[in-house]
Amino acid sequence: MLNDKTIMVTGGTGSFGNAFIGTVLEKYSPKKIIVFSRDEKKQYDMRLKFNGPLFHFFIGDVRDRETIFNAMKGVDYVFHAAALKQVPSCEFFPIEAVKTNVIGANNVMDAAEANGVKKVIVLSTDKAVYPINAMGMSKAIMEKLMIARSLSPRSDTVFCGVRYGNVMYSRGSVIPLFVDQIKAGKPLTVTNYQMTRFLLPLSTAVQLVLFALEKGRGGDILVKKAPASTMRDLAQACVNIFKVKNAIREIGIREGEKLHETLVTQEELIASEEFEEFYRIKVNRKMDYDEYFTRGHPGNIPSEGYNSANTRRLTVGETERLLLSLPEIPHSLK
């Protein structure tokens, strides 16, 4: 679908953007790749990494409607990855999360409709499910914006999304923190020993987005199934890999953290198709107020959603093998 097409990646200089564009270059022959982001240093670094006439770099912020409208002219497909993702930052500055993750996402969707984009795929997170922090709440609203947009008869643009759990070794995540603590000879700090988290390599997240490009229908949210680990086992796996004796210390759950993360709610499972490796959360409604006042959808609500406590639990050894599959870990071991 991407051969001889113009694509745009918002937040394209981040971890996802670099991995996604690298995969696109390996598998497809796009006409143009537009990298839209607000960090000129990262754009400079990316120019050195992916040099060539195929690339067009736009410095801008999704909060700025005029800039995103102009940058999207002639684009066929948009992959919306721009976001404020750090939970503590969004907790301290929630209005900034709203400006980027909600208003910015709406600007992207408006621009896509105005410019005749064929398809927009928005990237979401497990923190948008039963959200308890500002980052998750803002991402949940982004999902609702996408779904509402997909129900509108005014546009030929297809809007769909993906939702996945923690991307391993992404910027600001716990694994780079553990590696830094190991190298500094410090204890590995775990908020709660029994806390569980989905573990997803970045390459798997990229494949999910490409799958959504091919198979996603209007309003769909595609969810990749993933294994999980307790935080204690994840820390222990890091200690084992580096063959060190750093202590593992529990420091207590922080503001905005959950004990377990959910990828699909109980209620969403009613309207979902389950496949071997993913869920498709479908939109089973129209722009019809009667559905909210006089009609509902039949079906039994499952006893629980799909979460990091009931997914496949990795052993310490399995977690070690998954960590060693990441390119960053062998590099750090050197």
Polypeptide structure, described:
The chain is α/β, with parallel strands linked by helices and 334 residues long. Helix content is 40%, strand content 19%. The strands form four sheets. Strands 3-2-1-4-5-6-9-14-13 form a nine-stranded mixed beta sheet, sandwiched between helices. It has a two-stranded parallel sheet with strand order 7-11. Strands 8-10 form a two-stranded antiparallel sheet. The longest helix has 21 residues, at 94-114. The radius of gyration is 20 Å and the shape is globular. The model has no long low-confidence stretch (mean pLDDT 93).
Structure described in brief:
The protein has 334 residues and is an alpha/beta fold.
Number of helices: 13
Oligomer: single chain
Counting DSSP E segments of at least 2 residues, the number of strands comes to: 15
Low-confidence stretches: none
Radius of gyration: 20 Å
Helix content bin = 40-55%
Rounded to the nearest angstrom, the distance between the terminal CA atoms is 39 Å
Name the helix and strand elements from N-terminus to C-terminus, one letter apiece: EHEHEHEHHEHEHEEHEEHEEHEEHEHH
Largest sheet: 9 strands, mixed
Report the portion of residues in β strands. 15-25%
Gross morphology = globular
Strand order of the largest sheet: 3-2-1-4-5-6-9-14-13
What class would the helix/strand composition place it in? alpha/beta
Mean pLDDT: 93
What tags apply to this protein structure?
single chain; 334 residues; alpha/beta; 9-stranded mixed beta sheet; two-stranded parallel sheet; 13 helices
